[in-house]
Amino acid sequence: MSRGSQLSDSERAEVIKLLAAGKTTLEISKILKRDHRTIKTFVANPEKRPEGHRGPTKKSVTAREKTRLKRAMAKQPLGTSKEIFEAAGVSMKPKSSRNRVLGQLGKVRKSVGKPSLTARHKAMRLDWDRANIRRDFSTVLWTDECRATLDGPDAWASGWILHGTSPPPRMKRQQKGGGVMFWAGIIDDIVVGPFRVENGVKMDSKA
């Protein structure tokens, strides 16, 4: 059986035979155990054949090109295979060949959605703790500021990183933010809210 959305010659002949027998595309897909969309695509245009990659293909890289690819991956972690190859000045098509080469050098990972704390952030948190250590927090709702914002990182996209390295955090949204968010909390089994959060508003004491 063919892979993906392509039919083998024997499957194509079987589809034509079943169509002549009055079978529907759905019935044919169940008989051949193929996706219904694949059968419908073939019936819509039986003469169409899958086209291979146009032009010469490159299936390997030199040691020097590998070094340039490693350097590009280190400079722009979480980049796509196309971005990395362009940055390294290496020409290779198709995408499957690029991914095979990069698979020897690294791996695909998602970014960290929550930015790591800097030394300044840690110092500010300690100062806040010292100033509020005696405060009654029984009526305080705690919120992760990184998650309660429409403009924070979302860790949606993934990309290539070198072996032995960790995925870095994304400081901005890949989809440029947007949307509508509602916020609510519970104190002593009492629901507080919900409130609609305006674009760009962070859930802190001033909100």
UniProtKB/TrEMBL annotation:
GO terms for molecular function: DNA binding. Residues 3-48 form the Tc3 transposase DNA binding domain. It comes from Perkinsus olseni (Perkinsus atlanticus). It comes from the Eukaryota. This is Tc3 transposase DNA binding domain-containing protein. InterPro entries: RNaseH_sf, Tc3_transposase_DNA-bd_dom. Residues 43-64 are annotated as: Disordered. Pfam families: HTH_Tnp_Tc3_1 (PF11427).
